[in-house]
Amino acid sequence: MESGKQLTGTLALAVFTATLGSLQYGYSIGVINTPQKVIEKHYGRALGVWSERVAVLSENSTEEEELSEVGQHPSVIMYWSLSVAIFSIGGMVSSFLVGFVGDLRGRIKGMLVINVLAIAAGLLMGFCRMWKPHIMVILGRAVMGFYCGLTSGLVPMYIGEIAPKAYRGALGTFHQLAIVIGILISQVIGLDFILGNDDMWPLLLGLSGAPAILQSLLLPLCPESPRFLYITLGKEQEARKSLYRLKGPYDATSDLEEMRREKDEADKEARVSILSLIRSSVYRHQLLVALMMHLSQQFSGINAIFYYSTAIFFRAGVAQPVYATIGVGVINTIFTLVSVALVDRAGRRTLCLAGLGGMCCCAIAMTVGLKLQNDYSWMSYVSMSAIFLFVCFFEIGPGPIPWFIVAELFSQGPRPAAIALAGCCNWTSNFIIGMTFPYIQGWLDSYVFILFAGLLFGFTVFTYLRVPETKGKTFEEIASVFQKGRKQLPLSPKDDTELQQLKTTSDA
Q1: Quick check: pTM over 0.70?
Q2: Which of 108, 125, 315, 339 is most exposed, with minimal Cβ within 10 Å?
């Protein structure tokens, strides 16, 4: 293997340590769903609803009926909905701060400092019985959402900057892999006979902050991003040392020369802010592609599967739908591993097209199965198979690729602002789907996934027409693709300078 391009132990440690933040993100997404009825019971008790019901409950009432009635109380519904939604709100707010935190003291120190938020959130939820559980959980979820909004930007940024070009896609996919592993872990230990029960549910929620402790111990052992050290801070020798730690002994002249050229251009211009990035005509196409890819991830309908898969399986006639939901999590993880293996071979664009097109077909099949399952019993197998295949196609491309392709589309200057905007777009879309899907489902019933099929078809067409292949390409080659549609347009001096910044940049 060519020197400087091999996978070293330090690089593996750095990627593993960074993705512990992604693991917390995934765990926090999934952990709130499984013990819903148990948590609602404690909310009802704290609000005085549960004790009032106990006095009038019939002796023949089952515990499941009692939990259901408490969960339908308006106050419990309000606090439960807020417990779920506040996580996305926290992420929406903090995603704008990704660039600031990443550039303030560096990627490593940034991830280290924000772990205070994750640990604090875990403590708030873990000790929620010491005060009002509904308030403590909501506060903990808000702080955890704020943390996850930051880590969902910092992790792909750091990995994209330290990864060798040949493995940039595969290592970038590890962010999504850690997320789906976190979701799976939360589903398994959230079962009622493990931690998802009346006694252990605070511990289940509190464990959301546990990976932050391990990450805080390992981060000091990881090298800082050499691109940050050289281009942002101007520390060439420290950047050289970081390159040697990440890639082993090799001739780093070409890497340092590329960073020097990028730094020279970046020094001529003021730092690219979020507002200037939105206004810039030079970056507009790249930004459109980045935002549309994140929209395709969230508006594909995948969160409808993750959030409501248990209910969907129940409608499909599964006796133990919670285990089918865990099965979705297992498939989720397996096919993310498939994406890791394929992304630097098949390419980003190819996998996204295959994934979006396959999900579109599955959404149609799911609709047919749900609509006809009362007439034909075998149709329930069609809808369940469509769910599993839907998840498979999602994790092949549309799931992992949007997280790291933003770092490939932008050079060092606008990259933090672009990642912040894309992250905010992702979190906002997640929030919208989470809040509106129950109402859309009530309105469209079995036809709900036809809506997603239409959106997926539109995203597939957009990807085919506008998204370039970035596999193995330098920034100069990527920029030349975006410039094709601008050749007939006169460039202002500012636009020309911004283009030169892209042209003189090479690998992320």
Answers
A1: yes
A2: 315
